[in-house]
Hints:
Rossmann fold; 5-stranded parallel beta sheet; Luciferase, domain 3; 3 domains; 16 helices; 5-stranded mixed beta sheet
Amino acid sequence: MPGLSLFDIFQNIAKEYFSKTALIFLGKHYSYLQLSQLSTSLAKALYHSGIRKSDKVMIYLPHIPQWLIIWLALQRIGAVAVPFTTFYGPNEIKYIANDTGARMIFCIDTNVNFVIQALEETSVEKIIVCNITDLLPFWKKIIGKIYDRIPEGKYKTGDNVISFKGFMKNGASELPAIEISEKEYAQILYTGGTTGEPKGVPISHAVLRESFKEIRETCEHLIPRGEDIVIQGAPLFHILGQVVGIGALFSGDTLVLLPRYNFDAVLDHIHRYKVKTLFGTPTAFRMILDHPRFEYYNLGSLQYCPAGGDALPEETGKRWLDKVGVPICVGYGITEVGGAVSLTPPGQSFPEGTCGKPLGSKKLRFIDPEMQDLTPSREHGELLVSSANMIEGYWNKPEESALHFINLDNRLWYRTGDVVHIDEEGWLYFIDRNVDLIKHKGYRVSASRVEKVLQAHYAVVACCVVGVPDEKVGERVKAYVTARSDIKGVSGGELIQWCRKNLTAYEVPHYIEFRDVLPKSKVGKLLKRELRDDERRRMET
């Protein structure tokens, strides 16, 4: 449907499947008609409050129906969604608010005071506060309170702090027609990357439309359009979680949403609602297999199990196929290219270790990471990706954009920093990752960001952070530290506590090793490769 905005496409789907269940949350079913009406009502409230086309609105919420309603409503009025992880603290919230110039933020009531504190020095005008039960039936709220299952945060409403339910009542009677080009931005996603601060990736309506369509077509021969039941197995603030989860709503399928990723809840919802598609990281699949109550649930409804975010251990893939009867189909994707680069088609045999075949929308090329010379197509090298609906750079970061988005032969390419290989049959294999990114439980941890926090400690002279291989979580974060000679008694535990105050939970180092000196090149550059090699030698002995 060329030229249509995302909301136009969703409205067409909602008209086609108006009575069908679009969303299931805590046992409540929302039809496509209800989801369309709720998002339209919120769009009116947003417009009435002064939010206009291209304005930025932050989404700082767990997986609740409001998340999707807000996202769809913003697409209706041409505003730009800025979703990000609830792991972020005040520093990150403030940074993103100032980086985007956001005018509004939606948050959950349990962290509203935290948000108020973070946004004092930003351009944010209104904080809209949600509760997990806002859209649930009254009787469910009563039961939840009786059994103390509903977390609630106390806050004072006012001109700038408004409850979600109160905000929904202030909608305009009608919305004007708003022309939205497919090249305009639908959202800005923040990714850790290799630098200290999160980097915003502006993603257009065209990029998302293409990604939703292409991902769904991969399994359409197995599960016809409108017949899938998808459980949200990856974060909605992550591009791969979006193309599978939000993408389900653009195909007439049913999305099962959980407020948090609890393995008993995931297994119970698969069993109860006959889920057909489960997307997750390889680590998540392994942890599901290792769950002590795994055998209690019937997962026989599963037909498609795509994975991404990391390499799949051979043992995990074999165990999953043996226990569930459906293979894990690994794909390779990046936020900076709008989602998947390659996918393993379900229902087909595929070689061990592959991350699929390149999608038709993506062009691939390889360069020598050191020499910058182009290498022949079928040899391994650093992967470059290009597409017709290309993301052109990072938000407000021209220097970072120049490093990662390059022009070759009159075409824009994104440098992934990942070394890959394609065999003669077109299967893509991941060889090695960018050395400055650490993959922990599917999260991308910026080594330089952790180093920046450690170096702010009064006792640290220099530090170097690397990923240590771990079969359970992919990699663990290890910091090598040189301490000031005139300060005694500083321990690794103290430095870890320091990091906990200044980093998100998944970024905190698991190990601290003190060294008198750190290895450096002749020009003074820290040699992380030597430290990684030291760790590998230790593991082999």
